[in-house]
């Protein structure tokens, strides 16, 4: 890019700012689930913020990402407006998807978020296809995704998936396709220690990185609680993708502080002890990055973020509920109207 | 006048669209050598950047097409076997189909899924003989079943140009058909427009895909006894309800012949909608595969599960009150 790289201090503060934004967003979203404003619950990413912050810090505005059911952090880190994201979770017409997607399908094509996905692993081949298409000049038809910043054809796609997803067949098929066709893809495995209630040692034969190695995909494992380590590994993977050398995998080892889904807050399934969670929380990405910046800077960011997020909540609450008569508007891009369910 | 085969019509439609629009690309297994013929010559004409031979990874390459479509391409995905649609039902019904709505209109997924040789191919047995078009109509994915070479060309062109996912079933029973055509007159056929192949006044037979030919044969057999109108919906979703209603205004009697399983098959939907909304003077009938049919291997058993002309004739006579 033509822009000069930011000073190191700015970069550290920038990472902290993103982590703090996601942390604060999830706290408020959980509160809104409790108060019934957000229906259907959410999958909070609390504890995993450094993965979203670090990976997106290594991307350019024209790059794209696909996300998971636990995707709020990814969407925010890529640049979506927190207010419109909160409005989406609240099912308002002012939301990113006009209230038609919700937490698990949040998308913001204007900033390169091609959608979170509720089926584990399903977005990995979608990202691979987008990456392949982005290399091609033909892929700029009217009404299609167009990067806000026209930064050439060396754009990359980055796809997030969890430790549970590496046992999903379509993910491994996509590894093969991406490697075979050298698509500019960055594979980010967010290993948070749990596939819902199951630990990797109970679901995964072998390892994440060995799966990549089987397809000739370079892979590294990094501390997913350290946003700078995540950023640096992602930058290397993205640079490799931009040169046409194909996909790389970054496994980020992190820990999910909160529930698989807010449903757990009342149902209380017992797959880990409170003591384990306490121990897991001891290494907090917010503190890791917070320790790298000046105290005054941190305080200023915290205050600014709180104001921003309080405004986001107000924006969400102020947004209109959709008109039921519009329920299936936009079902078909071609404008086809489905028949009504009753005469 | 040149003679066009159904398969050549499919091939011509893809080639013409690739020529017209650089965003059109083809993915599938063995599309380079074109084992199914529909993609013959395309690799040579358009190169490996637009004609991609895939590994045997149907689920991944189907969603790969979704991602490519969201980033501006217009992929056509070929499947050699109709049952592969069961493997990729998640990728089509749950991913590609849902993105337009779920994103609040931020994207579109213009992918065409082509099935050259759907239904029974004559003793290809249980896992190569399905005709799952009703499943796609049920979930609301645009579903096309051309009966003739001209319509195969026109509907495939439209499917490729459409901004939504479209599944195109080219029934094995229709692939050998040939037609004299004026190439200059080949044109896109809009989705949701049926075609009356033969006008009649006593009974409307709605025939899907290759069964149009059987319906025409039965109509001819019954000429003089029962005047049969043969209505080919051409697309099952969206369906040309207006065209069917107009036909039933003339005849008031309905038989549907549909090469899919009976329960929740497209025939059931056609009969139900006609009963709710259209003019019927006699109870309608369906001729379909049996409930839950798995086509057995032996030729006699395979044929025993498919709709026959004799069954159709009996159904027409029954609703016409002459049986």
Automatic annotation (TrEMBL), chain A:
Its cofactor is thiamine diphosphate. InterPro entries: DH_E1, PDH_E1_Alpha_Subunit, THDP-binding. Keywords: Oxidoreductase, Thiamine pyrophosphate. Residues 20-289 form the Dehydrogenase E1 component domain. This is Thiamine pyrophosphate-dependent dehydrogenase E1 component subunit alpha. It comes from the Bacteria. PANTHER family: PYRUVATE DEHYDROGENASE E1 COMPONENT SUBUNIT ALPHA, PYRUVATE DEHYDROGENASE E1 COMPONENT, ALPHA SUBUNIT BACTERIAL AND ORGANELLAR.
TrEMBL record, chain B:
Residues 4-177 form the Transketolase-like pyrimidine-binding domain. This is Alpha-ketoacid dehydrogenase subunit beta. The keyword Oxidoreductase applies. Its cofactor is thiamine diphosphate. Keywords: Oxidoreductase, Thiamine pyrophosphate. InterPro entries: THDP-binding, Transketo_C/PFOR_II, Transketolase-like_Pyr-bd, Transketolase_C.
